[in-house]
Design a protein that fits this description.
Elements lengths: L8 H4 L7 E5 L2 H8 L16 H11 L2 H12 L16 H18 L6 E11 L2 E11 L9 E7 L17 H18 L7 E7 L7 H13 L3 E7 L26 E5 L9 H17 L8 E4 L12 H6 L4 E6 L25 E2 L9 E2 L3 H20 L5 E7 L3 E7 L6 E7 L7 E5 L3 E5 L7 E8 L12 E3 L4 H8 L3 E3 L10 E8 L8 E7 L4 E6 L6 E7 L5 E10 L2 E11 L1
Helix pairs in contact: 3-10, 4-6, 4-10, 6-10, 8-10
Length: about 575
């Protein structure tokens, strides 16, 4: 079970904590993910590995009718609860798993049997059932030396209000037939092409009971030494209609429509410099540079501050907890669920109303859809583009950085392989990079474009085709002049301006350690302008830079003050503005 989720004691009695006997039912799939195979065995008759051809093929190939038919089929299983029927050929999670397996097999047959299909089987007591299976398919890459794995994932299971209700009608059209259909459709399209790194398409079970299928796969990767480079989790990615009780941060109001924005959720490191946040920025950069010039409907990719919606979680979390870069794609608008078990709940998510749409003219045909297939297709293309670029790109370099006046930065790049160019990203106060420079030198000086009291720098390699690697983790630097130096030496700790300030429901409050000082207790204390306490947040001040998140809630507005309090003494106070 994952520590982000808060689950009642009664529910915990339905779940066994230990996952055992985690195995791939196809040993070839395991060996390929480990890099123990001969790439020529999986070579296409006609090799298409040019990145422009791949991106254009993904953009043109994703089919809305295909996505629709996949969701209709998934809905036809009636109830895909993890504890539902495993024997029936037409209903329950067992029928859904067999169907997903057969779809991957069908895709493989259409692509010279290059896609290797398997179950990931594990034992765990979930809702009265003891044995479970994820379904996954492996597309081998050409590089068995740098045998990295890129995962595109969505959970297969559905639910009603009760997490273990295996008899209710739980079609789960948006949550999460939309994500499952996206994964299968991308397997169909992306299997036509050749990549350096291995791609894995996964549909998991047990998400609704605590991210259990994803946890099993991540644990399997750790136990077997599988090198996962990136995980793109897709959960609730087809709906565009805001519900009455959508989980924050989400909708402006009930009935609001948003078909041109997708939210990217990922975990923060200290200073937002984590591998998951860097993966989210990479996804957005690849969209901007590879897809935006050619798509007919531009999309807004919003990098969220939090790892997931308030009080919620997704299948990217187990992978992050095991040290893998992982993010979640989620619709801008959700139809629930900030309280499906509460009286008077009318939204569709986590209920029997999470269906494809409604029949408005009584001809037994759905003609008003809750899933926007064009929107889902656009999300699929963004996923495919990012996964493809990560799977064909070069290795990420190392680097050091020295702060100069200006402010500017002297960046020295170290790389085991000599590449023709490198990219240097600078970020200050937002979740996005302020600027991304390209250099052909291993040592170069770059300049900040946004005035700030903190900067984060990261780098990527660029190969001869102009394809960049995933970016490195960030290095944090603080610009300090003589006046600032004297000010900072007067106190061991400096309270920094919160960032972002804000545009979603979470903002980060940072403290710089100027020099080590013994202390017993440090707190960030947040108050409104009337002096009323909003929150006290413990903070560790052991590192050079430390920060804590403050969840102010979606839709809040106004000015608040926050203070750094060390051993009962207020050292500094600043203001922050809620404007969303």
């Amino acid at each position: 079970m994952k520590n982000l989720l808060v689950i009642s004691f009664i529910f915990l009695t339905l779940i066994g904590f230990t996952q055992t006997n985690i195995i791939s039912t196809n040993s070839v799939a395991r060996q390929v993910m480990l890099g123990n195979y001969t790439p020529s065995t999986y070579t296409s008759t006609v090799v298409i590995d040019d990145h422009d051809a791949i991106i254009q093929g993904i953009n043109a190939g994703i089919n809305t009718d295909s996505l629709k038919s996949l969701i209709i089929q998934l809905a036809s299983f009636q109830n895909r609860n993890t504890g539902s029927d495993t024997m029936s050929a037409v209903t329950g999670i067992g029928a859904a798993r067999k169907w997903a397996y057969s779809k991957f097999e069908e895709i493989s047959a259409d692509n010279e049997n290059r896609l290797i299909t398997s179950y990931l089987q594990f034992d765990q007591e979930i809702c009265g059932v003891g044995k479970h299976k994820n379904v996954f398919a492996v597309l081998p890459g050409t590089d068995v030396v740098d045998n990295k794995v890129i995962i595109i994932e969505g959970h297969l299971d559905s639910r009603c209000e009760d997490r273990c209700d295996s008899l209710c009608v739980a079609e789960g059209a948006d949550d999460n037939a939309s994500g499952t259909a996206l994964v299968i459709e991308l397997a169909r399209i992306m299997s036509k092409y050749t990549y350096k790194n291995t791609l894995v398409f996964i549909t998991t079970i047990g998400e609704e009971q605590g991210l259990l299928g994803a946890n099993a796969f991540s644990q399997y990767a750790v136990d077997n030494g599988i090198q996962i480079e990136a995980v793109l989790n897709n959960d609730v990615v087809g709906g565009i209609i805001c519900g009455k009780t959508s989980s924050a941060p989400s909708c402006p109001g009930e009935g609001h429509i948003d078909s041109t924005q997708v939210r990217l959720f990922s975990a923060n490191g200290n200073g937002l410099g984590s591998k998951p946040k860097q993966l989210a920025r990479f996804v957005k950069l690849e969209y901007k540079e590879e897809l935006l010039p050619v798509v007919s409907v531009p999309m807004l990719l919003t990098i969220m501050t939090a790892e997931d919606r308030t009080g919620r979680g997704g299948d990217h979390i187990p992978f992050r907890e095991d040290g893998f870069a992982s993010i979640r794609f989620c619709s801008a608008n959700e139809n629930g669920d900030a309280g499906s078990t509460a009286p008077g709940y009318t939204d569709r998510q986590h209920s029997s109303d999470d269906v494809l749409g409604v029949d408005t003219d009584n001809d037994n045909e759905v003609d008003s859809f809750f899933i926007d297939f064009n929107y889902l297709a656009r999300n699929a293309v963004i996923n495919g583009n990012a996964a493809a670029m990560a799977a064909i790109g070069p290795a990420t370099p190392g680097f050091t950085v020295q702060m100069l006046d200006g402010p500017s930065f002297e960046v020295t790049i170290s790389s085991a392989i000599s590449y023709p160019a490198y990219r240097i990203a600078i970020r200050s106060t937002s979740n996005d990079w302020d600027s991304v420079y390209t250099t052909t030198s291993l040592k170069d000086t770059v300049y900040a474009t946004v005035p700030a009291n903190i900067y984060r720098i990261s780098v990527a390699s660029v190969d001869s085709l102009g394809i960049e690697s995933l970016f490195s983790n960030e290095v944090t630097k603080f610009p300090t002049g003589i006046a600032e130096f004297r000010e900072e030496m007067a106190s061991p700790f400096k309270l920094l301006q919160n960032a972002p300030n804000p545009y979603d429901e979470v903002t980060m409050i940072g403290v710089k350690t100027n020099y080590q000082s013994n202390y017993q207790k440090a707190m960030i204390v947040v108050r409104d302008l009337q002096g009323r306490m909003a929150k006290e947040i413990p903070i560790s001040l052991e590192g050079k830079y430390n920060e804590v998140p403050f969840e102010h809630g979606y839709g809040q507005a106004g000015i608040y003050i926050y203070s750094l309090v060390v051993d009962g003494q207020v050292l500094s106070t600043k203001q922050m503005v809620y404007a969303n």
